[in-house]
Design goal:
The chain is built from six helices and 18 strands. The chain is an alpha+beta fold.
Length: 320
């Protein structure tokens, strides 16, 4: 019996929405091509093997117009399931492409995903108020263009509110919102990749910044709450350099606390835009690893621009 050796799959581990290693949200970025295609079972198994919040897979596509930005198929997996969108792993993917000269001189890259075409743009300017850029020579910002995740009224009975309150250790709840799940699928761009399971989100607004940062969640009870992800948020106090704070929990998708959740901010941008009557925000993710983001909500196009930095901390090859 002749054994056919698989071509090694190169990967990078990148911390997203931070300018410091071991902060922000980590993601594994793996590169596939026609020579080393793997089936979905293998993709899911490798994500479980890495056991990080997100493992994503990039496959370069050949465009008909050489003047168009480089395009890659992008898929995201937690250790449990495939996701239909992930902001921090998209940032990690763009950072890997730009920092390793994998897209030539282009400052823009496109990703064909289960949520349509997403773009990432390498920005020429720095945002000193967000990160200490002077201390990180050679670092750069990336702007992601993602679909907004609209929030809507969440009609809950008393038992639902009690479940949320218990899960959040009795924290005072100011508001509860749900999110819609009708993200547009561009099947042609996906080259036949099937749509993944939707990721319903519940936003719970607490009374203060401290109630979010000091929260001690009950993960077993969060697993019993409606939705696949629970986002906790509050407005920043007057005089803060931030507009709001958040934390995101996803035990149902295999990530107890999501260090910095990009897709959560696509919903938070919509929520806080309605509450604060503005479209530009600086947000703080108050997980143990923490992270910072700049957001712009484009109401006309119904898109959210997420801006942040990333840091590569590891690279290697998968041999099986």
């Amino acid at each position: 019996m002749v054994m056919i050796m698989k071509k090694p799959v190169s990967y990078f581990v990148v911390d997203a929405f931070t300018d410091s290693a071991f902060k922000g949200n980590p993601a594994v970025v793996c590169f596939l091509d026609e020579v080393n295609e793997r089936d979905d079972s293998w993709l899911q198994s490798l994500a479980a093997e890495f056991n990080l919040p997100m493992t994503c897979y990039l496959t370069r596509t050949t465009g008909s117009n050489p003047l168009d930005p480089p395009r890659f198929i992008l898929r995201w997996f937690t250790r449990f399931i495939e996701m239909d969108i992930c902001g921090h792993a998209t940032l990690a993917s763009a950072h890997t492409l730009f920092s390793n000269d994998l897209v030539g001189s282009s400052d823009t890259v496109e990703f064909a995903t289960h949520s349509g075409i997403l773009t990432a743009k390498k920005l020429p300017e720095t945002l000193d108020y967000l990160y200490d850029c002077e201390a990180n020579e050679g670092s750069f910002f990336i702007e992601l263009n993602l679909p907004v995740i609209p929030t809507c009224d969440y009609y809950s009975n008393h038992d639902d509110v009690s479940i949320f309150s218990k899960a959040l250790s009795g924290a005072t709840i100011v508001d509860i919102k749900g999110t819609t799940t009708d993200s547009t699928t561009n099947s042609e761009a996906l080259n036949g990749v099937a749509k993944a399971a939707s990721t319903e989100k519940i936003i719970v607004v607490l009374s203060s910044w401290e109630s979010v940062t000091e929260l001690e969640p009950r993960l077993d009870d969060i697993s019993k709450c409606p939705g696949k992800m629970l986002i906790v948020t509050a407005a920043a106090p007057e005089g803060s350099s931030f507009d709001f704070v958040s934390r995101a929990f996803g035990p149902k998708i295999g990530v107890d606390e999501i260090s910095v959740c990009g897709s959560a901010h696509c919903a938070l941008a919509h929520y806080w835009s309605l509450k604060m009557n503005k479209c530009d925000f600086v947000a703080y993710a108050a997980s143990r690893r923490s992270g910072k983001l700049k957001l712009h909500f484009d109401k006309e196009k119904q898109r959210v621009l997420l801006t942040g930095m990333a840091v590569t901390v590891m690279k290697g090859s998968v041999l099986v």
